[in-house]
Amino acid sequence: METRIIKTKLVGKDEVFNVLALGEVTGLPVLLLGDPGVGKTQALLDYAAAKYSYNKEEVRKNTFVIELDEGTRTSEIKGRVNMQSLLEDKEYKLDTPIADAEYLLINEVDKGTSGIRNTLLSVMREKALFYGDIIKKCKWQVMVGSCNVIPDDELENPFWDRFVLTQKVERVDLSEFKSIWKSTKVEKQINLPTVAEIKNNKVVDINAIQKFTTVVYDVISDRTASYLPHLISAIQLIWDLDQTETLMKACELIAPTKLTDLSAKLESKRENSVRSSIDALKGVIEGGNDAYTNIYIANVINELKQMYDMKSYNKKSVELTGLLMDCIEVHGSSDMHDIAVDKLHDSGMGPIAPPRVPVDTGELT
């Protein structure tokens, strides 16, 4: 498996880089949705730069970025006749930068005319440009379209289905602006599995994929459904997730409207396990072994943390964390309560944990 290091000033874009990696290893087009200025273009440029070891000339030669508007001509996508070759050498030659680039970004893709979209469809679907009897093969490894949102009146347009992977690019959280102001590059490690590794990966079994398909079937095309085993296997390897987490991530990328339905089907086992552990906590506390009880609580918090890290499980992890703290408050000691609070904060779940108890330093205030 290749490990690629992305050097970037962008904050909070790890998921975007992972989705670009997924697009690269599966050969599926990616759609980035988000407000202007959230880093959609820069994310692709940073990702491409890592491939070429930050050689600016190689990056420039191998990337194609275009902003569409109502006046964009098809020739700006399809290419133009090289007049110098035609006039001087009597050679008919087409300049087709989109076909020669390995990383493509079509910004404001929703503004393309029908002619532009037809050309893009052949680039996405056949990875080729067609000029009558002449076929020009495209070299792209990652193809990305971007826009603010898919227009409501186009939600059923089959054009958008060609972008199999959809990622919402969020604004930077208010608490993270200090990181932006530092203006320093950080390194992000991205995993890119090989075709053989994807094919041989058995973490998610075929029965689970079949159940997943029944949930998302009515909102995806047969084309997308045909990619599912390969796509889900690649997701598992890039994000390094367990089976349930992998299926939830796949749903988030190809059928986000079905997240709640899938969560209800997949999570019951995990949720019931954590809930049962919390229900059993009263008996553990009554056993009188505080050291064992604290270890038991730490294990429950670890399970809650794993749920908390999955976007679609946030609400349930909040609910279960509340049940845990209620049980400790009613049946446990104040020390046990404070230790649990500290563990929640240390795990990164501070936003849903009770505040820490301030330490009394004995100083006058």
CATH topology of the largest domain: Rossmann fold
User: What would you call the shape?
Assistant: elongated
Low-confidence stretches: 359-365
Please identify the structural class as seen in this structure. Answer: alpha/beta
* Computed Rg: 25 Å
The neighbouring-strand order within the major sheet is 3-6-9-2-10
Portion in strands: 5-15%
Annotated CATH architecture of the largest domain: 3-Layer(aba) Sandwich
Instruction: State the order of secondary-structure elements, H for helix, E for strand.
Output: EHEHHEHEHEHEHEEEEHEHHHHHHHH
Helix content: 40-55%
Q: Mean pLDDT, as a whole number?
A: 87
Question: In angstroms, what separates the terminal alpha carbons?
Answer: 57 Å
Tell me, what is the CATH class of the largest domain? Alpha Beta
Number of separate strands: 11
Structure overview:
- The protein has 365 residues and is of the alpha/beta class.
- It folds into 2 domains: 11-177, Rossmann fold (3-Layer(aba) Sandwich), CATH 3.40.50; 260-352.
- Helices cover 52% and strands 14% of the residues.
- It is built from 16 helices and 11 strands.
- It has helices at residues 14-26, 40-51, 56-62, 75-78, 83-88, 97-100, 114-125, 177-182, 195-200, 206-216, 222-239, 243-254, 259-286, 290-308, 314-331, 334-346, and strands at residues 2-8, 30-33, 63-67, 80-81, 94-95, 103-107, 128-131, 134-137, 142-147, 165-168, 186-192.
- The chain has a 5-stranded parallel beta sheet with strand order 3-6-9-2-10.
- The protein is elongated.
